[in-house]
Write a structure and sequence with these properties.
The protein has 2 domains: 179 residues, Rossmann fold; 213 residues, CoaB-like (Rossmann fold, 3-Layer(aba) Sandwich). The protein contains 14 helices and 20 strands. Bound molecules: flavin mononucleotide.
């Protein structure tokens, strides 16, 4: 039976003529035992009443960002955390534009911006609005952010025109969300380990050698995996980044600490090693602070190779081992050498010689090199690290399917 017992759906209704169909959609989710809370935009209330939504959903209806009663009972952040998925139906051209640009001037857009859950959009609008370049551009942005767009359909519109723009039927919306939640439950049993950030290798108690890695790409991969339902652990070197509470975060400083934390978290089903682990450490760390007057020589020795250890482990090797190669030159050649010498399944190569992408930037351009696949490599063009991580996780998901 396609039932959604214990699943929590946050519905957002925008101000479009198909808002009446969202009542039927809500009824269908409710009939299949989902718990429902609803947000109406100010304009949605011109089309459906909070009372009819409340009685059909048997759940609370919210409409105001600045409402003391709502904010004390369930604030706008908790509301986004409460749900297993967010369904925006109908999604108007206006709301699509706002969400794609990161506006958050009402409750609906604020909750979406603050959300760490899968967002589904069921657009509904006049065919010209749908075909407008700006709507197309906004939807492309949202698709790249990982939003799922359901429909619209072709048909006769309320305004009398004919074309694409009709909201997808309630049953099809239900099936799409149901399939996603069911898959998500499946991935809950799959353990994913991600490493991110730089490591610090101490010279004395206050000085260390490090590198320019920000950890952004690894954090984004952990977030994307978590959003798809994977049981995700992130081992992070020193960064200024934060992550959702539900992702298990282990903070470390040195390569040795990262290695121990990785060992502790094996076995895992898949591992993504995106951390820029220092290749060298100080041969003999000095226990007290070195004084200005002291003269000294730093001797380096090879650091522990975490990727190599994991991908060559007899019994604990994850099914899928993904390494990263950050290179300034001969990107492909060096990545292929790493792919083979470290026994990984994939190597994701990124060029760190450019200022506007790679290390410390919000953007990245990567090439995935595959070991045992017909496709030998795939280039993901320059885009936000959040979008790159969605594309990487799409490929991980198909591997596990
Ligand atoms: C009768 C009527 C029907 C409308 N239907 C739609 C629609 O189907 N899709 C859409 O994108 N906008 C539609 N609009 C325009 C939206 O209501 C308008 O863009 C509004 O700002 C949307 O607000 P919201 O996105 O905050 O809910 C309609 C407007 C009117 C007056």
């Amino acid at each position: 039976m396609k039932d959604l017992t214990n699943k929590k759906i946050l519905f957002i209704i925008c101000g479009g003529i198909s808002a009446y169909k969202s009542l039927e959609t809500i009824r269908l989710f409710r009939k299949n035992k989902a718990q429902i809370k609803t947000i109406l935009t100010k304009n949605a209330k011109e089309f459906v009443t909070p009372l009819s939504v409340a009685s059909l959903s048997q759940g609370k209806v919210y409409d105001d960002l600045f409402n003391l009663e709502n904010e004390t009972e369930m604030d706008h952040i908790s509301l986004s955390r409460w749900s297993d998925a967010i369904v925006v139906a109908p999604a108007t051209a206006n709301s699509i534009a706002k969400i794609s640009q990161g506006f958050s001037e009402d409750l609906a857009s604020t909750v979406i911006l603050a959300s760490n859950k899968q967002v589904f959009l069921a657009p509904a609008m006049n065919v010209r609005m749908w075909e407008h370049q700006s709507t197309k551009k906004n939807l492309k942005i949202l698709r790249n952010y990982g939003y799922k767009i359901i429909g619209p359909r072709i048909g006769e519109m309320a305004c009398g025109e004919y074309g694409k723009g009709k909201m997808t039927e309630p049953l099809d919306i239900y099936n799409e969300v149901f399939n996603f939640l069911q898959q998500n439950s499946k991935y809950k049993k799959i353990k994913a380990l991600v490493t991110a950030g730089p490591t610090n290798e101490y010279i004395d108690p206050v000085r260390f050698l490090t590198n320019k890695s920000s950890g952004k790409q690894g954090y984004e991969i952990a977030k994307s995996l978590y959003k798809r339902g994977f049981d995700t652990t992130l081992i992070s070197g020193p960064t200024n980044l934060t992550i959702e509470e539900d992702i298990k975060l282990i903070k470390v400083e040195t390569a040795e600490e990262m290695f121990k934390a990785t060992q502790k978290n094996l076995p895992t089903d898949l591992a993504v090693f995106s951390a820029a682990v220092a290749d060298f450490k100080i041969n003999k760390k000095i226990d007290t602070k070195i004084k200005k007057k002291d003269s000294f020589i730093i001797n380096l020795e090879k650091n522990v190779d975490i990727l190599n250890y994991v991908s060559n482990h007899n019994s604990l090797r994850p099914k899928l081992v993904i390494g990263f190669a950050a290179e300034t030159n001969d990107l492909d050649e060096n990545a292929i050498i790493k792919l083979n010498s470290k026994n990984c399944d994939w190597i994701i190569a990124n060029d760190i010689s450019k200022k506007n992408k790679g290390f410390n930037s919000d953007f990245n351009e990567v090439t995935i090199h595959y070991k045992n696949s017909k496709k030998k490599k795939e280039k993901l063009s320059c885009k936000r690290k959040s979008e790159i991580s969605e594309e990487i996780v799409d490929r991980i998901v198909s591997q596990f399917n």
